Amino acid sequence: MILADVMRLWNSAWPAGVIMLGLGSGFAIVLLIASEKLKVRLDPKIEQIHNVLPKLDCGACGFAGCAQYAKAVLENPELLGKCAPGGQEVSEKIAKILNLKMSDSEAPKRPVIHCRAHTKDKTYYAKYAGIQSCTAANALANVQACAFGCLGFGDCVSACKFNALDIIDGLAAVDYQKCTGCGACSMACPRNLIKMVPFNYDSIMTVACSSKETPKSTRSMCKVGCIGCSLCAKQTDLFKVEDNLARLDYEKYQPTDQTQTALNKCPTKVIIQVGKK
């Protein structure tokens, strides 16, 4: 009796099972054909370009990652040379894949911190006890007297994938031996103190200050800030003073006796040498 019931159940169920199997197989075949028909055929050069990139996805090129940059540079060769971590070597490899000739390369850009004040040099109104972040601290008034100075909580350090930055006594410092020029630190600084500038030489000069306060105010807030005295500008036209702040023309910079004199005569020693030792 039980066997007969089982047989009746089987006889009534197996046709439905066969139909479902057939439908499933049919749908699978249709999807397989559709996937082949609709597949986007990538240019093999995109993969070749991607293979020579450092695959750091740092965003220095202006794209979300190396894969996106590989596609973009194939479509627009003018983007060649945008991979800062890869540098000239990677650019030349991509140019070879694209059958292009590299033009004379521009000077690589590296970050310069326009502040020289360590903790002992700064004037503080009160001890900050909030979130240990430059972005958070910058949202509050009077964290430190100078509104232009480095806050020293290390947002730039966290942003760097190459361990090329550190906070030393309340001031960010760049290790140029490790720096690739990706620009992540510059984008992370809420006070825009870190600028990407051309390094025509391994080591260059800079005015390590961003304060536009009057000389008197600057002296009251920071021991090592620029006071806009113009002594540097009197030595060479590579320096100019605007809004009580000296600035160096990085594009035209070259080490000369005049630039060295400007550094030596700076009363607050805010003109310093940065770069590879």
Query: For this structure, what is the CATH class of the largest domain?
Result: Alpha Beta
Let me know the number of strands.
8
Instruction: Provide mean pLDDT, rounded.
Output: 86
Trace the largest sheet across and list its strands: 1-4
What amount of the residues lies in strands?
Answer: 5-15%
Account of the protein in words:
By secondary structure, this protein is of the alpha+beta class. The chain has two domains: 44-97, 3-methyladenine DNA Glycosylase II, Chain A, domain 3 (Orthogonal Bundle), CATH 1.10.15; 109-275, Alpha-Beta Plaits (2-Layer Sandwich). Helix content is 37%, strand content 13%. The strands form four sheets. It has a two-stranded antiparallel sheet. A two-stranded antiparallel ribbon has the order 2-3. Helix 2 (44-52) packs antiparallel against helix 4. The N and C termini lie far apart (96 Å).
Task: List the keywords.
single chain, 277 residues, alpha+beta, 3-methyladenine DNA Glycosylase II, Chain A, domain 3, Alpha-Beta Plaits, 2 domains, two-stranded antiparallel sheet, 10 helices, 37% helix
